[in-house]
Amino acid sequence: MSPDDPCPCGRGVRYAECCGPLHAGVQAPTAERLMRSRFSAFSLGLGDYLFASWARATRPDRAELDPDPDTRWLRLFIEETEAGGPFDESGIVVFTAIARGPEGRIELRERSRFVREGNDRRWVYLDGEIG
């Protein structure tokens, strides 16, 4: 992906101004921005980022986080957010992600929980309810 390409997360800005810096190590300012950067990481096949942005207490083994190369993540729709702002300790993001895989269209709807973790109080994905 070129830094000048539109960001996969759908915010309507260039990758270099959106998820690119987060993928390079800049902290997400909100739970929603972390959610968007994780969608972009799935889209771009960035398993290391997915692992690093998952809460230590709930994350799976690193080997389980490599995105399926046969699945193309296409669109992200943020439906609702609760808290998750710059001064919050937790937040919820409800989203729908659209993908295409070998079997056809995939639509994933999830209510994701995010928390702050570590000395730097970095936002991380805790868990989610699919449905």
Automatic annotation (TrEMBL):
Pfam families: SEC-C, YchJ_M-like. InterPro entries: NTF2-like_dom_sf, SEC_C_motif, YchJ-like_M. It comes from the Bacteria. SUPFAM superfamilies: NTF2-like (SSF54427), Sec-C motif (SSF103642). Residues 30-128 form the YchJ-like middle NTF2-like domain. This is SEC-C domain-containing protein.
